[in-house]
Write a structure and sequence with these properties.
heterodimer; A: four-stranded mixed sheet; B: 474 residues; alpha/beta; Rossmann fold; 21 helices; NagB/RpiA_transferase-like (chain A); LUD_dom (chain A)
Chain lengths: 233, 474
């Protein structure tokens, strides 16, 4: 695709910086300090889950924990608590592995279920817009900030976790890392190996909110109004 | 079309700010809350100074190699199906974006909060084409309905109370509800949802562009950035040319510094990282993507003693720490960039001519420098601005110029300054008469030759400020 006016622009910057243009060979220096590596350093997976649970309170997010066998029941209870009559989810391989496919079949009688299908094009968005609930897996989970990381692709639209009124994230225990540092490292290493980064990566920490009116915290603005995390051992 | 908001004189704007009781209360309470939240986060990390050091090193390296990283960024964006336009001026940026809008025959553009688009006057440029421009950040939307400029970088409608907001909604959008914030926000949600779904073009700013992958990262709480980057078929990013980092690893560090310093959150609800146009078979996201990289005066700062001003990550921590901002509010600065960073940056971007009062809108207490998460020496830059203004404008005799240089040296080392302001009252006693120094020693001598210098107060401002912080006053 086109790049316009670049050479004159960058030549000008180099001139102002008082040196010839740098087009290659720039390396990041070794930083004198690395405080980001110290946060929750050396914690066990269970300790990270504790940190995650604690942070959930700060971000107005319901925290639940179960194992694979218990997930179906916990998820059904959560859907009921949200009075979820319409649900949208990605076409994710983990739907089968974690029993979501079974649960959705069971709920189909009373609930509208839409699994993302790119061949249906904008129909996906239209459903997401009126859905009560979006349910996705977390790809990388950040304990410090209680953040789920979603790598979107053609089977996992961006609108699933964005347009419905409530959002449920299923968090496989092994996706939990101390903080954003580890997620950024994973992404950086993949890029260095020559992999293409996903077109859209969302780091989501609880429901949307705003403090724009007299600095009062309002939970639920453009995105979901409420959120639940379910950690699966 | 500029950084400048209006033509009213500085003294008038300051007076208006001081006389606006609601605004002053709102500002001081917001400052208190922001600062205490930031402090909680700093304490929890325990090694905040290391974080600041890392932030400063990252920004310094990136800006020193800006040509390299912008080249890498533009190559990557292009590879991912995006168009990149380098704009030397506001006009070039606006022209390019206008062309995109014209080609798309777009009737509605939805925007997320962006300082640089305010700076270049993009909304007016688009409206002149007949396109409707909708600001989607709640605070910005309120201001847009009311045709009012922002007064704070992070909380743009800080100067408005909920009753005023209710009136605006009622008058402009037929709202009939109460002034309960949740109800107001719910109304905005439904109104703006419709706008997101019908806009043909989305325009966002950029918190951090990632050179290695051509990715743009946005930091928001409301989710409006996710909306604007997901729903319209055409997406345009407008970025100030310095808003870039080498890799995801540096983005992560700066986002951590930004969210903590701006609002005292570990991360905001949404950190959104998007790269180019949507891929094959993806439904959400734009099929046409444009990145506009704006200079508009920034390159003049490169290679000068003010280069570190380009390290700014727009967190507003300096604004929240500033005792002058606390009293006069954001509008007094008459710049879309208020507070200490605004007082440093505005004259650099827009010239001293219209903004020569701004470097004086500071007590030089250094609270801004201490608050800055990337260690920009803000108050030292303000002193330097004053020197330049005095030299250039020839408004003061040479002796005062000399004194300012001595003062800068004396006040630029915190240890010396702290000690000397404590000692000064005692030490200056012999020269003090009725709390006025008429014939001062040392660095004061040149100054007092042409004017009197007030004797240092019994409690220095810094020690007063420190104590007030400790007492948790809001």
């Amino acid at each position: 695709m086109t790049i316009q006016n670049r050479e004159a622009f960058l030549d000008g910057l180099a001139a102002n910086l008082g040196r010839p243009r740098r087009t290659e060979g720039v390396k990041r220096p070794i930083w004198s300090v690395t405080p980001q590596l110290e946060v929750l350093k050396g914690q066990t997976q269970d300790e990270l889950i504790e940190a995650l649970e604690k942070q959930c309170q700060a971000i107005h997010t319901v925290f639940k924990r179960t194992d694979k066998a218990g997930l179906e029941q916990v998820l059904e209870d959560t859907i009921q608590a949200y009075k979820g009559q319409s649900i949208i989810a990605p076409n994710d391989q983990r739907n089968d592995v974690y029993g979501l496919t079974n649960l959705f079949k069971k709920l189909e009688q009373s609930t509208e279920i839409h699994i993302w299908d790119h061949t249906k094009e904008k129909e996906n968005q239209v459903f997401a817009e009126r859905a009560d609930l979006g349910i996705t897996f977390s790809d990388i989970t950040l304990a410090e900030s209680a953040t789920v990381t979603l790598f979107h692709n053609k089977h996992h639209g961006r609108t699933i976790s964005l347009l419905p009124k409530a959002y449920i994230a299923i968090i496989p225990k092994e996706t939990i890392v101390p903080r954003m540092t580890q997620a950024a490292q994973q992404i950086h290493e993949a890029i260095v190996k020559g992999e293409d980064v996903a077109s859209y990566i969302s780091f989501i920490s609880g429901p949307s909110n705003s403090a724009d009116i007299e600095m009062n915290l309002i939970v639920g603005v453009h995105g979901p109004i409420s959120a639940t995390y379910i950690v699966v051992d | 079309m500029s950084i400048k908001i209006n033509e009213s004189p500085y003294e008038e704007r300051v007076q208006q700010g001081i006389e606006n009781d609601f605004m002053r209360l709102a500002v001081s309470s917001a400052q208190g809350r922001f600062r205490s939240r930031k402090r909680i986060q700093e304490t929890e990390l325990g090694n905040w100074e290391d974080w600041r050091q890392l932030g400063a090193e990252i920004r310094k390296h990136t800006v020193e190699n800006l040509d390299y990283y912008l080249q890498q960024l533009s190559d990557q964006v292009s590879k991912r199906g995006g168009h990149v336009f380098f704009a030397a001026t506001a006009e070039e940026a606006n022209d390019y974006i206008q062309n995109v809008i014209r080609k798309k025959e777009a009737k509605k553009v939805v925007k997320t909060k962006s300082m640089v688009t305010e700076e270049i006057g993009l909304n007016r440029a688009l409206e002149s084409l007949g396109a409707e421009v909708v600001e989607s950040d709640l605070g910005e939307w309120i201001l847009q309905l009311d045709e009012d400029p922002p007064s704070h970088i992070v909380v743009p409608a800080l100067h408005k109370n909920k009753e005023q907001i209710r009136e605006t909604f009622a008058e402009k959008r037929g709202y009939t509800g109460s002034d309960i914030p949740e109800e107001l926000a719910d109304f905005a949600r439904s109104q703006l949802r419709e706008e997101f779904l019908t806009a043909e073009v989305g325009i966002t700013g950029c918190n951090f562009a990632i050179a290695e992958s051509g990715t743009i990262t946005l930091v928001t709480n409301e989710g409006n950035a996710e909306m604007a980057t997901t729903l319209p078929d055409t997406l345009i990013t407008v970025m100030g040319m310095e808003r870039i980092v080498p890799t995801w690893e540096e983005m992560e560090v700066l986002v951590s510094l930004l969210t903590r310093s701006a609002v005292g959150q570990k991360l905001t609800s949404y950190i959104t990282s998007y790269t180019g146009a949507r891929l094959d078979d993806e439904i959400d996201g734009p099929d046409d993507y444009h990145l506009v990289i704006v200079d508009n005066g920034r390159s003049k700062i490169l290679g000068t003693e003010f280069q570190a001003a380009l390290h700014c990550i727009r967190c507003a921590a300096c604004i929240n720490a500033c005792p002058v901002y606390r009293h006069v509010g954001g509008h007094a600065y008459n710049s879309i960039y208020p507070g200490p960073i605004g007082a440093v940056l505005t004259p650099l971007l827009d010239g001293y001519e219209n903004h020569k009062e701004l470097p004086y809108a500071s007590s030089l207490c250094g609270a801004c420098t201490e608050a800055c998460p990337v260690k920009i020496p803000l108050h030292e830059m303000l002193i330097r601005h004053r020197q330049i203004i005095v030299e250039k404008e020839k408004q003061a005799p040479m002796v005062e110029k000399m004194a300012m240089k001595g003062f800068a040296k004396w006040s630029s080392s915190p240890a010396v300054y702290k000690l000397s302001t404590k000692m000064a009252r005692l030490a200056l006693n012999p020269w003090t008469k009725d709390d006025i120094i008429g014939n001062g020693p040392g660095p004061l001598k040149d100054w007092t030759n042409s004017r009197n210098f007030p004797a240092p107060s019994k409690q220095s401002f810094r020690s007063w400020y420190k104590e007030r912080e400790k007492s948790g006053e809001e």
